[in-house]
Q: What sequence folds into this?
């Protein structure tokens, strides 16, 4: 499988290995004559080359792909010809007559226009600047660092003019040359090292970053624009060139190209020089007049080509909190002003809303049409977000005047983007915090509405983004066509007129001038959080069950509803979905209990028996269903909304709504938070930074305002020491969110000239306990007196300098108490967090910068220096906008990805692998792989390829995964850390031991800077390093891994036992057999306890312990006999791990393989399921069995695969297929690289409620939820990957049915319906005026 071709996307090639499998009949993807083939490209001044194209490409796509090649760059204004016939740019390749694989296409030079001439000059500038990955730091974007690890040791430049194919290979796809002797790991990443890694190691120097200088200057001439007579003769613009030889030239641009004129700095003479010819490409002309330019341009082109993922522009900006080391040295010559060149290139102001709606209205009849539609939507949304970001910067910098003239609520229009700080209607919601909450909720609701499918796509939303820049938040919805006009959907009713509402009272429906229906002001779409509503009466928030243990610790801190700083506390969609599933399980249990009390389930489910209907009615009443004949759960978003009054006829329904909302609030405290802590306790969830903790909380529907309850639950838990990393992250997040709110207010009083000094002062106050007014602020004070606005003096503009560290932490404590209910635990300074919870100040600084957009200069900061401010004004490199935007889904690719996850969970590795290749291909077609979900898909594809015995393909794919993760998530993102660890496994399999070590060094370096050494994932990295290293350092890393695993997982965990076994192996190699026996005995004890005595892993450990004992006895006997056999003391082969064993252990440690235990229980469960199935089949021959809606018997769907759906352990039949070995089973690989082992004690959980799932209102009902395909099973978490589901009863759950005549607002269907629609945690949609989870489109 090649890595030098970009898979998918117009203008990109596709790897050969994947082109062979694209379009296979897997999960609705069929072959559509889009197979790739190779053509030959020739042209004037261009060395012929092969180009991979697709039949579905247009001719202009081939032109764009050719222009991106180094052989063609920087040529522009080219077209294609075949056999002398010019090709239509808009013609598909499959319709071009005579075009076949191997055909020769010729590039033809086209005349320039004034616009294309300027575009060509801009392209030449980009080539000469040769922007590398580190140049993205200047724009605040995350770079890719992988090339600094994978570069070859041979860096000699080739001779000028020489261009071999090997030089065109991407750097990341070139296997590294192994030096003769590898050095050990740096001192600062050794276990327990006192020295922290220097920040400079985060962004190492690129070995290929040195760019040869081709010119001293290339700029627009002072004689621009051309006078009228010269314009009529074809002159477009004039260019001045200063060559490295010291000569000056003036160049004219005309339709035919570029030529030298006779002008000088003093004399304007545009006539052509007698010695000059017209060149279509500017670089050809420059090569004629300067030999040094020609030589350096050749060296520039011969640099190693970067991977396509690294060369492509990312669709959205990913912030980097570190900038270049020097602001002046990193500022390169731009060769003329880009603004002057591009002023005539910028197109007319776009109508963003029309472009987005037009893209959404594209046809979706075929796969090809859906891919083109998804790609168009992605591109429009990306361009809109970039425009909104630039517009917010321009507005807040003071370069745009408001269009409404209102000083209290100004509105701005920039590049077609409408920007505002929030409507006046949000002012009563809690001031500035209420406005920001309304913006976030509006964005979340628009995300839900934008994912409507089917006929509901006729309801439109505006392109939306929220930009936070320099302490101010601007919302950016695009204008609706030429302006909305009111319709009947607006709520203007006579006083006293009662009408049913199916949305919140704030929502508005508008008919745009374009004839489309829009929904606005949907920030109250989700129901209210009863835990944070003013108490009207005694509201204890008690759930339906007693809280015990961790649950009691969670609920004890929130006895009654409390007030929040703003009035927009709403439940998350994930919580609503989980709560409905919880109530559905209760409903099923209550139906069963009532049936068993009235003669048994078998009797009650018989047709016509009224006892079944009575059981359903009673269960509906017990669980709070709004219907008494079916299970139906809806939430009214207007309940608990201030100022909303309901009709007297709705009193009973509203009281039921309030009761259910209180139970939903209690559900967070009694179920979701304890379940999260339980998963963290068993290391099923291992967030590395506070942002990752927020994502985990959101996936479970827990709002961040519950961080206080989370910390209280941990502090009162008996396992708080094992949860110390979660408590640490929770306190960090509380401090940072409070500090961010104070920082936003802090910046409002700072003038522009003092921004860098003010920001550095605030950071010092945050990190140092007694930092006061800094001397660094004196110079800004002097400047502010000279530059004060309107004679206001310097007193107001320098008020920020009076802030002290003690005052700031006092304000943080007040905000944390008001927001999170924390009265203790934060302390009075950052040192308390360091001493009490083990927080690193560097981690605190990093996350604060990422939240606020502050970018610091790349240098080492001594954050414990109390004598000198560790951060000065010169260290603040920039302040960048932080953007929240809509995430456009890729429906077909996401559906295939979920289907592949389902196959892998069932152990169908081959089928899952094919589905992953199809999904990866579709992701490439839509978003060029630069998408978090595409990153997860490719990572899982690499794992599947590795498990299938294709390590070369796994290596190639994983190289791309690392680059994509660095580009779209961040170079120090937790997912990037885990992807580096996985890459180490794949390259080690290929014999690249040195590269594997460097990847693990990089991963551990990032872990130390992002979180620190006290984290369970450090054990994974140290175990991997212990396996790939040799000697004492190997034992040192393994001992540290054992220490961490014992601390976080416990002594009786399987991972701890694996660490004991690895240490025993290394001790045998070192000759310390006594220590080896000790560790192996510990491992055997755990394996016997967890897996049983008959488990292969237990037997393997016993055999290994026996071999160690025998060898130790032999050595001891030899020593007693006077050393007669001392020459034979080498470690036996049975004790020294082989390469295959090391690879298997690496895969186990990193979660590619998972240890499986309770093997005998799996066999017992399988046998029980077989007996149950045989009994049911025998029963079917005697009586007719009701069928489900999809026409399949209920038993078949429950027993398909002979393993309960909730189980993740593969069946023994799959082990017999050779996919698994005796010590480890290839199970569903966790996307983030975590390795978890779960005890599957539930037996038959998926089938225990089969009979109940047939009964609704006393009869068998067919539901749309049963038509969902099996491919849409697992949940996709986007950036973080998927985690294990614990619900083992979803097969037996009843499906909620919406009732069209209901007057209650938010309707939520459950289980298989909502399970199939969960994409990136967003599942709310609007249907017939009601918000429901969207049904997955099954085709």
A:
């Amino acid at each position: 499988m090649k890595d030098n071709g970009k898979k998918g996307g117009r203008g990109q090639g596709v790897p050969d290995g994947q082109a062979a499998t694209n379009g296979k009949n897997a999960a609705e993807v069929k072959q559509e004559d889009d197979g790739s083939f190779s053509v030959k490209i020739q042209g004037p001044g261009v060395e012929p080359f092969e180009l991979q194209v697709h039949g579905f490409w247009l001719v202009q796509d081939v032109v764009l792909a050719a222009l991106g090649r180094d052989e063609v760059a920087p040529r522009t204004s080219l077209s294609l010809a075949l056999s002398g016939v010019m090709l239509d740019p808009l013609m598909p390749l499959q319709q071009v007559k005579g075009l076949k694989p191997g055909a020769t296409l010729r590039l033809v030079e086209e005349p320039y226009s004034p616009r294309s001439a300027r575009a060509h000059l801009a392209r030449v500038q980009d080539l000469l600047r040769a922007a590398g990955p580190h140049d993205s730091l200047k724009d605040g974007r995350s770079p890719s660092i992988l090339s600094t690890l994978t570069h070859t040791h041979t860096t000699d430049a080739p001779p000028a003019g020489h261009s071999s194919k090997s030089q065109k290979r991407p750097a990341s796809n070139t296997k590294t040359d192994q030096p003769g002797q590898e050095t050990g790991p740096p001192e600062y990443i050794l276990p327990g090292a006192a020295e922290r890694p220097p920040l400079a190691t985060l962004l190492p120097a690129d070995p290929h970053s040195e760019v040869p200088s081709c010119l001293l200057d290339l700029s627009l001439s002072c004689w621009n624009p051309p006078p009228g007579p010269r314009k009529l003769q074809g002159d477009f613009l004039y260019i001045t060139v200063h060559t490295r030889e010291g000569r000056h030239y003036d160049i004219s641009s005309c339709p035919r190209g570029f030529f030298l004129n006779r002008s000088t700095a003093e004399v304007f003479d545009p006539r052509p020089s007698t010695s000059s010819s017209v060149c279509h490409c500017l670089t050809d002309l420059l090569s004629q007049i300067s030999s040094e330019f020609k030589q350096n341009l050749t060296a520039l082109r011969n640099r190693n080509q970067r991977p396509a993922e690294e060369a492509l522009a990312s669709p959205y900006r990913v912030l980097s909190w570190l900038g270049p080391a020097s602001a002046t040295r990193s500022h390169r010559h731009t060769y003329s002003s880009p603004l002057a060149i591009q002023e005539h290139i910028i197109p007319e102001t776009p109508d963003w809303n029309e472009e987005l709606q037009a893209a959404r209205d594209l046809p979706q009849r075929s796969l090809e049409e859906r891919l083109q539609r998804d790609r168009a939507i992605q591109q429009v949304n990306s361009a809109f977000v970039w425009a909104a970001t630039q517009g917010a910067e321009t507005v807040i910098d003071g370069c745009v005047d408001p269009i409404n003239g209102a000083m209290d609520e100004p509105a701005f229009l920039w590049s077609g983007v409408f920007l505002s700080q929030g409507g006046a209607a949000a002012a009563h919601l809690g001031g500035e915090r209420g406005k920001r909450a309304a913006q976030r909720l509006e964005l979340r609701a628009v995300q839900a509405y934008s994912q409507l499918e089917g006929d509901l796509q006729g309801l439109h939303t505006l392109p939306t983004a929220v930009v936070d820049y320099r302490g101010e938040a601007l919302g950016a919805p695009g204008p609706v066509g030429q302006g909305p006009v009111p319709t009947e959907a607006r709520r203007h009713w006579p006083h006293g007129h009662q009408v049913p509402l199916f949305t919140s009272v704030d929502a508005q429906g508008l008919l745009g001038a374009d004839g489309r229906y829009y929904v606005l002001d949907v920030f109250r779409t989700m129901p209210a959080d009863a835990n944070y509503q003013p108490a009207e009466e005694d509201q204890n928030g008690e759930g339906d069950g007693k809280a015990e243990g961790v649950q009691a610790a969670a609920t004890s801190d929130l006895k009654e509803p409390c007030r929040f700083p703003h009035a927009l506390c709403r439940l998350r969609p994930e919580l609503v979905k989980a709560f409905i599933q919880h109530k559905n399980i209760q409903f099923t249990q209550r139906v069963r209990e009532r049936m068993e009390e009235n003669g048994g389930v078998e009797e009650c489910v018989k047709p016509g028996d009224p006892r079944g209907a009575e059981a359903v009615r009673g269960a509906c009443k017990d669980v709070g269903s709004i219907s008494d004949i079916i299970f139906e759960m809806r939430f009214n978003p207007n309940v608990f909304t201030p100022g909303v009054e309901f009709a007297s006829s709705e009193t009973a329904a509203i009281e039921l709504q309030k009761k259910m909302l209180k139970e939903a609030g209690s559900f967070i405290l009694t179920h979701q938070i304890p379940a999260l802590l339980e998963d963290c306790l068993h290391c099923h969830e291992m967030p590395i930074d506070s942002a990752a903790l927020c994502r985990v909380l959101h996936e479970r529907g827990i709002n961040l305002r519950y961080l206080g309850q989370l910390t209280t639950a941990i502090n009162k838990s008996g396992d708080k020491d094992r949860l110390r990393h979660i408590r640490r992250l929770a306190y960090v997040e509380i401090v940072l969110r409070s500090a961010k709110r104070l920082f936003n207010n802090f910046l409002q009083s700072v003038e522009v000239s003092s921004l860098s000094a003010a920001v550095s002062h605030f950071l010092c106050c945050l990190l140092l306990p007694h930092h006061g007014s800094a001397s660094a602020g004196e110079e800004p004070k002097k400047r502010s007196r000279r530059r004060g606005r309107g004679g206001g003096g310097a007193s107001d503009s320098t008020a920020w300098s009076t802030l002290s560290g003690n005052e700031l932490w006092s304000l943080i404590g007040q905000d944390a108490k008001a927001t999170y209910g924390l009265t203790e635990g934060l302390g009075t300074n950052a040192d308390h967090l360091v001493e009490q919870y083990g927080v690193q100040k560097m981690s605190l600084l990093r996350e604060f910068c990422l939240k606020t957009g502050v970018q610091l200069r790349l240098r080492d900061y001594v954050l414990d220096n109390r004598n000198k401010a560790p951060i000065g004004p010169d260290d603040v490199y920039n302040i960048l906008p932080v953007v929240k935007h809509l995430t456009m889904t890729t429906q077909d690719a996401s559906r295939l990805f979920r289907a592949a996850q389902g196959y892998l969970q069932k152990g169908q590795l081959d089928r899952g692998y094919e589905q992953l290749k199809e999904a990866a291909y579709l992701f490439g077609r839509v978003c060029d792989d630069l998408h978090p979900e595409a990153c997860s898909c490719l990572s899982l594809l690499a794992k599947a390829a590795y498990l299938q015995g294709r390590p070369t393909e796994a290596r190639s794919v994983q190289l791309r995964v690392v680059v994509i993760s660095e580009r779209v998530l961040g170079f120090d993102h937790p997912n990037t850390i885990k992807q580096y660890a996985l890459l180490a496994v794949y390259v080690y399999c290929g014999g690249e031991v040195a590269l594997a070590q460097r990847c693990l060094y990089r991963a551990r370096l990032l872990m130390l800077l992002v979180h620190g050494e006290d984290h369970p994932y450090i054990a994974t990295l140290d175990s991997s390093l212990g396996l790939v290293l040799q000697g004492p350092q190997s034992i040192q890393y393994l001992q540290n891994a054992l220490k961490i695993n014992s601390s976080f997982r416990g002594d009786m965990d399987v991972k701890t036992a694996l660490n004991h076994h690895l240490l025993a192996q290394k001790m045998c190699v070192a000759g310390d057999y006594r220590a080896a026996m000790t560790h192996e005995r510990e491992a055997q004890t755990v394996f016997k306890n967890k897996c049983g005595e008959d488990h292969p892993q237990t037997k393997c450990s016993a055999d290994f312990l026996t071999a160690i004992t025998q060898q130790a006895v032999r050595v001891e006997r030899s020593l007693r006999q006077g050393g007669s056999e001392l020459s034979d003391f080498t470690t036996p082969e049975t004790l020294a791990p082989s390469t295959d064993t090391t690879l298997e252990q690496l895969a186990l440690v990193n979660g590619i393989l998972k240890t499986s235990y309770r093997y005998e229980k799996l066999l017992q469960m399988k046998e029980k399921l077989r007996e149950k199935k045989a009994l049911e089949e025998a029963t079917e021959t005697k009586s007719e069995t009701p069928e489900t809606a999809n026409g399949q018997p209920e038993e078949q769907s429950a027993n398909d695969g002979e393993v309960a759906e909730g189980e993740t352990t593969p069946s023994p039949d799959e082990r017999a297929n050779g996919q698994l070995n005796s010590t480890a089973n290839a199970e569903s690989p966790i996307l983030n690289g975590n390795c978890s082992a779960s005890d599957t004690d539930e037996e038959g959980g998926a089938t225990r409620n089969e009979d109940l799932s047939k009964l609704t209102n006393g009869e068998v009902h067919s539901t749309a939820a049963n038509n969902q395909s099996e491919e849409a099973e697992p949940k996709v978490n986007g950036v973080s990957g998927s985690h294990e589901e614990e619900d083992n009863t979803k097969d037996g759950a009843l499906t909620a049915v919406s009732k069209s005549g209901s007057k209650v607002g938010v309707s939520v269907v459950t289980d298989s319906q909502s399970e199939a629609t969960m994409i990136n945690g967003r599942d709310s949609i609007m249907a017939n005026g009601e918000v429901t989870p969207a049904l997955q489109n099954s085709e």
Q: What stands out?
A: The two ends are 31 Å apart (CA to CA). The chain is about 40% helix and 10% strand. Residues 651-681 form the longest helix (31 residues). The longest strand covers residues 46-54.
